[in-house]
Amino acid sequence: MEMASLNSSLLPLLFILLSSFSWLTLAHPHEDFLQCLSFHFQDSTAISKLIYTVRSSSYSSVLQFSVQNHRFNTTSDPKPAVIFTPTNVSHVQAAIYCSRKQNLHIRIRSGGHDYEGLSYVSYSLPFVIVDLINLRKVAVDARHKTAWVQAGASLGELYYRIAEKNRTLAFPAGIWPTIGVGGHISGGGYGMIMRKYGLAADNVIDAQLIDVKGRILDRSSMGEDLFWAIRGGGGNTFGVVVAWKLKLVPVPPTVTVFTVPRTLEQNATKLVHRWQSVASKLHKDLTIALVLRRINSSEEGKTTILAAFTSLFLGGVDRLLPLMQESFPELGLVKEDCIEMSWIESVLYVVGFPSNASSDVLLGRTPLTNRNFKGKSDYVEEPMPETALEGIWERFLEADIDTPQMVWAPYGGKMDEISETSIPFSHRSGNLYKIQHLVFWDEEGNEASNRHISWIRRLYDYLTPYVSKNPRAAYVNYRDLDIGINNIQGNTSYRQASIWGIKYFDNNFDMLVSVKTRVDPTNFFRNEQSIPPLSS
């Protein structure tokens, strides 16, 4: 699939031509940026349809459409001077050049799911959002089991297009269908078939990246070190990935799903404790994720904890039941709990769409939730004792917190077989499971926000003895600025960035810094947790 439409060899000439026009300099950098783009495309009417400023009637709706965390959708949050929605790769090249020329900070948004809003909020002002929502083509080659997907496509669109061509092919990426492919794969990306096939980034075989010089690079021309870095080293750091070439994976015509809910009154504590020792050792065709949340109790006025054991098995129920009886009989799974379906139907099931929903819902881009939230992450290497679980329940049941939740994703299987240096994502063998900590709330205002964020920080502190250490590992796609932050203005030292960088990437952080220093020495592509170059 041909993703690039501007010959890279013409770009230096464009840069020289643009630089020679002193009349482009106006009073405001963002107006200079608009003039720069207009000159590049020579058709101000066409380009105006892709640009939104605060004077545009649809500015707010375009900005807010992909805001997935309502916490960063307030009047006090910094707003971009310009939102640019390119329709081809040459537009992105021009945006990079014009942003550099006018000294505008740039943020890249594919789906808007950054947990700290870094794809659409910046305190380095003024800034431009390059929103890739129009770069969303998916070209599936079922015969060769590959697909080219542009970075602005959603996971739902990717899954839909794969199933449209072949219902026994899949891709091992995330659950939430509105997540943008660009950012998801840049941080690793995992889902319900991770234990069978690894991460999304483990299954990337080529890419198209626009670097700081505006060149379109593929795997061959960028070199293996940069290709390594973009597959898990975090987005908006090394350039703009505009497309990924993916290796698709086989799935059987029939898979089996189940969700078994258990409350504290139904022995949830002992089942969760047992799950910790079982889930990472199951057959790699079987994933049992665990979702923990607070619900109303059957006793009026009281609340309890619900543990939902949600599973995807790559096979039929008759093969699943003996595996469960052998490995996790305590759960008490019976045939009536199980539903056989196709893999694409299982995508809808795991998200929670109604059983009669059409797969067309995967093509929707509207956010599925519009709440405030704060997220954090952890890795667990030894089972927590039941007393530790009881401490979690106690904190979940605090009355002044709206919606606390944990998602525990089991490791093992393929994740144990891939080297921790294969890509920047280092969390492999030795991890039983990953924790996603979440708290949601609807109440507006700083007091409510501070109360919920303080709660999740206290929970995180409480879990310190029970999770990974030296470093306390974290997952970059669950962005958490609590663990460290770069300078908003000016350079960030290696020492300062390593505070958070080692937690996300462990020993791979040094290699990421080395690559960054080579490909973007002036740190044009940056955010509050982007890899810094070494100072010259």
TrEMBL record:
Keyword DNA-binding in annotation: no
GO biological processes: cannabinoid biosynthetic process
Coiled-coil ranges from the UniProt annotation: none
Cofactor(s) it depends on: FAD
Gene3D superfamilies (UniProt xref): 3.30.465.10, 3.40.462.20, Uridine Diphospho-n-acetylenolpyruvylglucosamine Reductase, domain 2 (3.30.43.10)
Molecular-function annotations in GO: FAD binding; oxidoreductase activity
InterPro entries per the UniProt record, alphabetical: BBE, FAD-bd_PCMH, FAD-bd_PCMH-like_sf, FAD-bd_PCMH_sub1, FAD-bd_PCMH_sub2, Oxid_FAD_bind_N
Annotated signal peptide: 1-27
Keywords: Disulfide bond, FAD, Flavoprotein, Glycoprotein, Signal
Family to which the UniProt record says this protein belongs: Belongs to the oxygen-dependent FAD-linked oxidoreductase family.
Protein name, as recorded: Cannabidiolic acid synthase-like 2 isoform X1
Organism: Populus euphratica
Lineage: Eukaryota, Viridiplantae, Streptophyta, Embryophyta, Tracheophyta
Gene: LOC105134862
